[in-house]
TrEMBL record:
It catalyses: tRNA(Cys) + L-cysteine + ATP = L-cysteinyl-tRNA(Cys) + AMP + diphosphate. The keyword Nuclease does not apply. One of its GO terms (cellular component) is cytosol. Monomer. This is Cysteine--tRNA ligase. Its EC number is 6.1.1.16.
Amino acid sequence: MQHNLVLYNTLTRKKENFEPIHPNLVGMYVCGPTVYSDVHLGNCRTFVSFDLIYRYLLHLGYKVRYVRNITDAGHLEGDNDEGDDKFAKKAKLEQLEPMEIVQKYTIGFHDVLRLFNTLPPSIEPTATGHISEQIEMVKQIIDNGYAYEVNGTVYFDVEKYVKEYNYTILTNRNLEDMLNNTRELGGQDEKHGRLDFALWIKAKPEHIMRWPSPWGVGFPGWHIECSAMSRKYLGDQFDIHGGGMDLAATHHTNEIAQSQACNHSTPAKYWMHTNMLTVNGARMSKSAGNGFLPGELFTGNHALLNRGYSPMAVRFFMLQAHYRSTLDFSNEALDAADKGYKRLMTAIALLDKISPAAKSTFGDLKAIQERSYAAMDDDFNSPVLIAELFEVVRIINSIYDGKLTINKKDLDALKAYIQAFVFDILGLKDDQLGDADNMDDLMQIIIDLRNDAKQNKDFVMSDRIREQLTAIGIQLKDSKDGTLWNKI
Ligand code: AMP
Ligand code: ZN
C-alpha cells in the first residue's frame, strides 16, 4: 500500500509530507524528563504521544534512531539561569547525593513508561555523561562569535544572533514583545543583552554538581545538552525533534540558535510539539502542584480521583485525543475511556472464539484498513483510528452473535489488522485479566464446576457462579458447543 505520511511541522506551521533526510535511517530526538522528581501524568502524555509516532514510523518500515535524553544536571529553578539547582535542592531535602536523586527518579521514570507499554528509545543519553561534548560545542559557538565569557560564565549573544538569523523562527513571536516581557538588566547583571542565556554557568562554592572547563569550574546551561547530544547521535541535521509545547518558546528556540551558531544549520527538519494535559483547564505541572503521579492514578489514591484506572485504560484515554489537542483530565473522561478500552479488548478476545464460516457477510475489511491508515497518515490521528476500531468492534460482536459471518481468510486478515493497529501501532495490550492462556484454563475450571452443580441440580450454586462472574465483568453463554465466556 502506498503511504503518504503527513505531519504538522511547528517550524513552518504547516502540515508537510514526511520526507526523511536519509530514507534508510530516520533520526528522532525527543526532550526527556528532568529527573529530580517523579514524572507526572502530563509528562507521560508527551512520552506516550512520541511512542505512538515512533511505533507508526516503525510500522511503516522505517528504521528509526530514537534518542530521548535524561536531564540530570544543569536545571536551575528559574527559566533565566537563576535560582537553586533543582537536583542539589532535592538531594538536600531527601538527604541523598544528587546522583542518588538522579538514579532514583530515572528508575521510577522507566518503571512508569514500561507500565504504559512505551518502547524504549534507541539511545538514552544523560547530560552528565556528555559534559565534554557540551563544552566542545560552547567553545565552537564562542569561536564562531556568538557567545562571550564573563567571569567564568558563558552567555549566548542573542543580540548578535538576531542580526543574522530569525531567533523566533519556531514560535513566530515578536522580538519587541519578547524584550518587553523580559526584565531590564541591572548593574549586577553580567550578560550584555536581556535575551542572552547561559551556555555554561560558573559554580558557586556550594554548588555540588560541577565540572572543570576552559572557563573555570562550572556546569552546563539548560539548553546546550540537547544540542550537543542530538548532534553527537543524529548529526548536525536530523529529521524530527520533539517535546511538549511548553518547550518551544525557550528551550527549543535556544536549541535552534545554538545549533545554527555552531553548525550553521538548523538541527531538525520537522519540529513536533505535543499539547498539554490539563486539570480543570490548567496545565498539569510539577510547580503548580496539580500533577497526579501515575501511581496515584492506578490506585485511585488521590483526592481528585473517584477510583483507580489501569495503565492501559489511561493510555487509551490519552490516545483518544489527538497529540496536538489539549486533553483535560476528569473522572468522567477516564471512566468513558476505561469503558471504551474494555469494549475493545472484550471484542478482540472474542476473535479466538469465532469459528469461521464458508462465506463472509461482514463487509469490507480492506476499506476499514485503508481508512485506518489514512487516519494515521494524517499527522498520527489516533482518535480517528479509534473511531474506526469501534466500527470493527461492532462487526466482531455481530459475528460472534451470529448476525454476520466471516470466512477463514478474512478472519486471519481481521486478526492481523487488530495486531497491527491495536497492539503494534497504538501500543495497547490486554491488561484487564492477565495472561489470556491462563485465563482460558481458569475459566474452564469454573465452567466445569458450574456444570457439575447443574448436573447435581444445585441451581443455587450454578446461578451464583454465573452472577458473581457477571459482577466482575465476565459473561457466560451456554451454547450447543458448551459454555463460552467473554469479558463484558
Ligand atoms: P520536564 O521533566 O518538566 O522537563 O518535562 C518532560 C516533558 O514533559 C517535556 O517534553 C514537557 O514539555 C512535557 N510536559 C510537561 N508538562 C506537561 C503536560 N502538562 N502535558 C503534556 N506534556 C507535558
Ligand atoms: Zn531538550
